[in-house]
Amino acid sequence: MKPAIIKIGGSTISQLPSTFYRDIGELYETRQVVVVHGGGPAINESLAKQQIKPDFHQGLRVTSSAVMKVVEEVLAGSLNKALVRHFSDQNVKAAGISGQDGQLLKARILNEKLGLVGDVKEVNPSVIHALLNAGFIPVIAPVGLGEHGEALNINADHAAVHIAKSLGGDLIFATDVPGVMKHNHVLTHLSHDEAKDLIKDGTISGGMIPKVEAALHAVQSGIEQTFILNGFETGVITAYQHNRSTGTTFSKKVVQS
Ligand SMILES: Nc1ncnc2c1ncn2[C@@H]1O[C@H](COP(=O)(O)OP(=O)(O)OP(=O)(O)O)[C@@H](O)[C@H]1O
Ligand SMILES: [Mg+2]
């Protein structure tokens, strides 16, 4: 069975129900599972303590070297380990790494204006396979390795799609909203053209922009199924496991129509 790559939004981590982690453990009994996580709110909280104001451009964090230090401490440090503990509490074996381990995510500066934001250029999934073969769910913090050996901040949605591409699995974005919304309704399916229009007219904004772009990229790269769904919804992972996914679905058929 195809692996499932589950991106857990930083927006959800502190409030996800324990069943979410338990259900991922159950999913892992039937297929390989890889977790990628974000860390937006926790990073903002740490930045606030240092009187650094968060700055975003099209949903991507402008990352100076001072910001990068905080991103790495929080994302690859406290938050990554907190997630591993959540799995551990449910007796699910998980091991936390960053995109620097085993040169998993090699990246280049995306745009000088954004500072130390990385664009993934190469994925070396051997560290993922090593963990999976040893029975651990890899829990990946999206800090990449730059061309000069520097740490780069990679948007977690972008990192997840690159990892899903390299493993050939389904991609699930678990976030803090029930899917892509328009006028307070969830769009159950989203085509490429519609998504672009909704970004243009501002219906899709902030952190939903890189997520939808990552989903479109996933479909264009041949990933069969991509979902944006609500991590807070009870049973959402089990529903996916039984082909009853909720939220917004992106699939080749719809995107090409
Ligand atoms: N059309 C839209 N439908 C749904 N959410 C939207 C839309 N436009 C903007 N958003 C915002 O996008 C947010 C989700 O993206 P966000 O980046 O904040 O979360 P995340 O990716 O799950 O977390 P993190 O970036 O920390 O990993 C929602 O909470 C919502 O405020
Ligand atoms: Mg986000």
Task: Supply the helix-strand structural class.
Answer: alpha/beta
Main CATH class: Alpha Beta
Mean pLDDT: 95
Give a count of the beta strands, DSSP E runs of length 2 or more.
15
Largest sheet: 7 strands, mixed
Pathway: Amino-acid biosynthesis; L-arginine biosynthesis; N(2)-acetyl-L-ornithine from L-glutamate: step 2/4
GO cellular component, one term: cytoplasm
Site (Transition state stabilizer): 7, 211
Binding site for substrate: 39-40, 61, 153
Notes on the protein architecture:
This is Acetylglutamate kinase. Pfam families: AA_kinase (PF00696). It is found in: Cytoplasm. InterPro entries: AceGlu_kinase-like_sf, AcgluKinase_fam, ArgB, Asp/Glu/Uridylate_kinase. Pathway: Amino-acid biosynthesis; L-arginine biosynthesis; N(2)-acetyl-L-ornithine from L-glutamate: step 2/4. The protein is an alpha/beta fold and 257 residues long. The chain has one domain (4-256): Acetylglutamate kinase-like (Carbamate kinase, 3-Layer(aba) Sandwich), CATH 3.40.1160.10. Helix content is 39%, strand content 24%. The chain contains nine helices and 15 strands. The chain has helices at residues 18-28, 40-49, 65-89, 126-133, 156-167, 192-200, 208-220, 236-241, 252-256; strands at residues 4-8, 33-37, 56-57, 60-61, 94-98, 105-109, 118-123, 137-141, 143-145, 151-153, 170-175, 181-182, 185-186, 225-230, 248-251. The strands form five sheets. Strands 5-8-2-1-11-14-15 form a seven-stranded mixed β-sheet, sandwiched between helices. A two-stranded antiparallel ribbon has the order 3-4. Helix 2 (40-49) packs across helix 3 (65-89) and helix 5 (156-167) runs parallel beside helix 7. The structure holds adenosine-5'-triphosphate and magnesium ion. The site of magnesium ion has 6 residues, from loops.
